[in-house]
Write a structure and sequence with these properties.
Elements (H helix, E strand, L loop, with lengths): L1 E5 L7 E5 L9 E11 L1 H8 L16 E9 L11 E3 L31 E5 L4 E2 L6 H4 L2 H15 L7 E5 L3 H12 L3 E6 L2 H9 L4 E4 L6 H8 L5 E6 L6 H7 E9 L12 H7 L2 E4 L5 H13 L6 E6 L3 H10 L4 E5 L2
Helix pairs in contact: 3-4, 6-7
Length: 336
């Protein structure tokens, strides 16, 4: 089969080649991949800044895929040939709290990912793809949508009328706006683009803040919330801006620490954190059971993914370059 292979760190070392088509073992599905979507994690793996000690070489990258089951191993009961399925990043995290070794079983590193014509997914890990979505749309769900869902529902426990702040307009953030609005929350979004903020308001946000022109954006958040701060803040930036996130969150509020776009380390001012009694929770996607619940919600509320651009399989490098420059919503690669 054709597959993109990361032979060393750096985008120049991502090469299109051929490898043997894998065969499903007991309990496994062979999936003909229809499409994959890119996340910041995928770029960071190629760049060598995402747990490089875990990355085997050569590696078939990209965790998030949607496709059709074309063969099954012995004992498979959850799916049959012809079913459309999603991959799930943490292939062994099925329900409840995560175990200590979940990162050892992630698609796209260290397990082979979906940037190939076929991939192996264990039936316990696979999730039924929504019938009303194309492969390109369904491929956007495993990390971006599920991270937003888990942050808002499982961790944030958001209720109608509460306030949520979403940073940026990437994949996780756009899904968070859509899901939070559907939950009845009041959503505030930040971005460096006024045009993106206008579009986000059309998706359900009630207010937008340009953090370039308003560098002390936390002060504007307080104005918008009568001085209280938001109930939940989804932080995708990381770095030193965590202190602004604490200031923008209400007393006893919650921060879902999702990303590290501006840095993997931060110096936290402890006194505001302590006195505001803020809860900061690292979010690394979610268990498969949450994915199953999310898909029902997306279907009920008719939420469709926002896709910035779809690239053909042969132009995977260009898709990575697009992601590096910034995207409104998701960047997708079609395999067929």
């Amino acid at each position: 089969m054709k597959a993109w292979l990361l032979k060393d760190f750096g985008l120049d070392n991502l090469e299109l080649g051929e490898v043997p088509t894998p065969q499903p073992k007991s309990g496994e599905l062979l999936v003909k991949v229809g499409a994959v979507s890119l996340n910041f994690r995928d770029k960071a793996i190629v760049d060598g800044i995402y747990e490089p000690h875990r990355v085997p070489k050569p590696l078939i990258p990209v965790s998030d895929a949607a496709g059709t089951v074309v063969s099954v191993g012995d004992g498979v009961t959850r799916f049959k040939i012809g079913d459309r399925v999603n991959s799930h990043l943490y292939s062994r995290w099925l329900d409840g709290a995560p175990g200590p070794h979940e990162p050892d079983y992630c698609f796209g590193s260290p397990l082979p990912g979906g940037l190939a014509e076929y991939m192996i997914i264990h039936e316990d890990s696979a999730v039924r793809a929504p019938d009303n979505m194309s492969d390109e749309e369904a491929a956007t769900l495993p990390i971006a949508a599920l991270t937003a869902w888990y942050s808002l529902v499982d961790f944030g426990q958001i209720e109608p009328g509460q306030t949520v702040l979403v940073q940026g307009t990437g994949g996780v953030s756009i899904f968070a706006v859509q899901i939070a609005a559907a939950l009845g929350a009041k959503v505030i979004a930040t971005s460096s683009s006024d045009d993106n903020l206008k579009t986000v308001k059309n998706l359900g946000a009630v207010a937008g803040i340009n953090y370039r022109t308003t560098p002390n954006w936390e002060d504007e958040v307080l104005k918008l919330t009568d001085g209280k701060g938001v109930d939940l803040l989804l932080d995708v930036a990381g770095g030193s801006s965590i202190n602004q996130s604490v200031a923008a969150t209400k007393a006893a509020g919650r921060i879902a620490q999702i990303g590290f776009l501006t840095g993997q380390t931060a110096q936290v001012n402890l006194m505001p954190l302590i006195f505001r009694q803020t809860t900061i929770r690292g979010i690394a996607v979610a268990p498969r059971s949450s994915f199953d619940r999310m898909n029902v919600f997306l279907d009920t509320h008719k939420i469709r993914p926002v896709i910035d651009q779809v690239y053909p399989f042969e132009k995977a490098r260009e898709a990575y370059e697009h992601l590096a420059k910034g995207a409104f919503g998701k960047v997708v690669i079609t395999i067929a």
